[in-house]
């Protein structure tokens, strides 16, 4: 009773003792309220921990997804560089092939025009 009076803010100096039945009833009520309070606190703590674990799991999933995306971006960057190198090399190769074809055509035309009357084994010198 003194504890209850102190919690409520009253002076607990002049409290007369309770009879045995009233004290048992008050003790049972206090014990029941304590059990309910402890159960509620436990539920709140468990819910808080569950929420924290769920938050940590989601954060870990996000981190893993972010790392996967970074890896994929890196892979795509390498593939892009390779494709750009192929694109830059392709016009050069095509231009070289075109020049070779034109050179062969020119050689063919020159060979037809400059058919020497002498044997082809003797090189002509220009003087």
UniProtKB/TrEMBL annotation:
<protein>
    <recommendedName>
        <fullName>Optic atrophy 3 protein</fullName>
    </recommendedName>
</protein>
<comment type="function">
    <text>May play some role in mitochondrial processes.</text>
</comment>
<dbReference type="InterPro" id="IPR010754">
    <property type="entry name" value="OPA3-like"/>
</dbReference>
<comment type="similarity">
    <text>Belongs to the OPA3 family.</text>
</comment>
<feature type="coiled-coil region">
    <location>
        <begin position="50"/>
        <end position="86"/>
    </location>
</feature>
<keyword id="KW-0175">Coiled coil</keyword>
<dbReference type="Pfam" id="PF07047">
    <property type="entry name" value="OPA3"/>
</dbReference>
């Amino acid at each position: 009773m003194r504890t209850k009076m102190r919690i409520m803010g009253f002076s607990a100096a002049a409290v007369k003792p309770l009879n045995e039945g009233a004290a048992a009833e008050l003790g049972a009520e206090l014990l029941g309220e304590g059990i309910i309070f402890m159960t509620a606190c436990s539920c709140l703590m468990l819910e808080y921990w569950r929420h924290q674990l769920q938050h940590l799991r989601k954060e870990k999933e996000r981190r893993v997804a972010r790392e996967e995306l970074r890896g994929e971006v890196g892979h795509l960057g390498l593939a892009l560089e390779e494709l750009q190198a192929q694109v830059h090399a392709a016009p050069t190769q095509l231009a070289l092939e075109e020049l070779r074809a034109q050179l062969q055509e020119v050689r063919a035309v020159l060979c037809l025009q400059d058919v020497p009357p002498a044997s082809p084994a003797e090189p002509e010198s220009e003087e």
